[in-house]
Amino acid sequence: VTYYLNNIETKAHLNAFVEVYGSSALEQAAAIDEKIAAGKAGKLAGMVVGIKDVLCYQGHTANASSKILEGFESQFTATAIQRLIEQDAIIIGRLNCDEFGMGSSNENSVHGPVKNALDESRVPGGSSGGSAVAVQANLCTVSLGTDTGGSVRQPAAFTGVIGIKPTYSRVSRYGLIAYASSFDTIGVFSKNIKDNALVLETMAGSDDYDSTSSRKAVPEYSNLLHFNKPAKIAYLKETVHSDALQPEIKEHTLQILKKLAEEGHQVEEVAFPLLDYVLPTYYILTTAEASSNLSRFDGVKYGYRTPNAHNLESMYKLTRSEGFGEEVKRRIMLGTFVLSASYYDAYFTKAQKVRRLIKEFTEDLLTKFDYIVLPTTPSTAFKFGEHSNDPVAMYLEDLFTVQASVSGVPAVSIPNGTDKKGLPIGLQIMANSFKEAELYAFANYLT
Ligand code: GLN
């Protein structure tokens, strides 16, 4: 803990942590040392964990990087965090992110942007940018992020670390401040597969506080990392040959596929004609869900309330106008529009239907193949400001990550070399729902 606290201090300019629980982390550590001496320590004893600022931790502030949650203190602890604490993990602090998880660069945060430790003129990715940099820069052993459309995998790729998005419903969402409830997942950043697997197996599993959490038993992923059979691997033609793809990423992805074929795995190119529809489907459905989820922030129940109101209605309006950032407002408006009476069928219902097609296609492919391999991102980490005035360009950053989110299947991003500038490239692997053990074993084989 002292090692990490020192690193957090010397690397404070990266802006990864928005709050450090220094003294309580040291106290927790001392108590765990005693447990270790008595032979009674939990399986995560010594693991130092940072948590994204969208997860509730009783008695601690949670802001979702938004002004609208200014002054908000959690009344209870997220199930995911509770389970880590029960196994003696040490929670060291709260990590910066895009406001309510909306963004791909961590530039939409009331706490200011997070810097990529490899090149401080570049973004760390988002929305879990702080969580990625905290692991990248050795500010904690592992961190929790959330992934609705790529917010763990994309920043993992940009910072050169490992990031998993589990199957939707694998980890309870209790205590996670909602962005898009039918997409939100809690994921893990780490430098090695074993730590990642240990954390996920501890957090996962059914929870009475989240009726959507799966009751399926959780395998001990960390003991199933051995990969010994030839695998069937599909890669999607439209992703590897996409015009949007940076040439070095294409090269690295094809190289690894070639190597896998040479090692005796079955590697096949598959057409994915739905690729063009994945991103619009994702943005229609997530903005719809977000507009509904964020209606609770009205200046009464949580956090910020405008001091400028003169009646009830102006209190609502001004609180929300002053409290939400630009991107969040854009999404609330988009979501309200696609849910409105005249456009509901044309956009929302249509997108639900397309979601089903994408899900069926992906699940079907993953019964024929063990894995789908594709790049995590179209480009390596970009510069601050490069996309901030062009929301569509920013949304295009999620081109390859949203398929797993729309389908609900698990996906992991692992480092796959660097481009000419030395910036990390991510390789993404998807497996069928609840096949996290298989995903980890394959990722372990490749790293
Ligand atoms: N960048 C995507 C978005 O802005 C993904 C965000 C996420 O996964 N939380 O919606």
Automatic annotation (TrEMBL):
<keyword id="KW-0067">ATP-binding</keyword>
<keyword id="KW-0547">Nucleotide-binding</keyword>
<dbReference type="InterPro" id="IPR023631">
    <property type="entry name" value="Amidase_dom"/>
</dbReference>
<dbReference type="GO" id="GO:0005524">
    <property type="term" value="F:ATP binding"/>
</dbReference>
<dbReference type="GO" id="GO:0016740">
    <property type="term" value="F:transferase activity"/>
</dbReference>
<feature type="active site" description="Charge relay system">
    <location>
        <position position="127"/>
    </location>
</feature>
<dbReference type="GO" id="GO:0050567">
    <property type="term" value="F:glutaminyl-tRNA synthase (glutamine-hydrolyzing) activity"/>
</dbReference>
<dbReference type="InterPro" id="IPR000120">
    <property type="entry name" value="Amidase"/>
</dbReference>
<dbReference type="Pfam" id="PF01425">
    <property type="entry name" value="Amidase"/>
</dbReference>
<comment type="function">
    <text>Allows the formation of correctly charged Gln-tRNA(Gln) through the transamidation of misacylated Glu-tRNA(Gln) in organisms which lack glutaminyl-tRNA synthetase. The reaction takes place in the presence of glutamine and ATP through an activated gamma-phospho-Glu-tRNA(Gln).</text>
</comment>
<feature type="active site" description="Acyl-ester intermediate">
    <location>
        <position position="151"/>
    </location>
</feature>
<protein>
    <recommendedName>
        <fullName>Glutamyl-tRNA(Gln) amidotransferase subunit A</fullName>
        <ecNumber>6.3.5.7</ecNumber>
    </recommendedName>
</protein>
<feature type="domain" description="Amidase">
    <location>
        <begin position="1"/>
        <end position="439"/>
    </location>
</feature>
<dbReference type="InterPro" id="IPR004412">
    <property type="entry name" value="GatA"/>
</dbReference>
<dbReference type="GO" id="GO:0030956">
    <property type="term" value="C:glutamyl-tRNA(Gln) amidotransferase complex"/>
</dbReference>
<feature type="active site" description="Charge relay system">
    <location>
        <position position="52"/>
    </location>
</feature>
<comment type="subunit">
    <text>Heterotrimer of A, B and C subunits.</text>
</comment>
<comment type="similarity">
    <text>Belongs to the amidase family. GatA subfamily.</text>
</comment>
<keyword id="KW-0436">Ligase</keyword>
<dbReference type="InterPro" id="IPR036928">
    <property type="entry name" value="AS_sf"/>
</dbReference>
<keyword id="KW-0648">Protein biosynthesis</keyword>
<dbReference type="GO" id="GO:0006412">
    <property type="term" value="P:translation"/>
</dbReference>
<keyword id="KW-0808">Transferase</keyword>
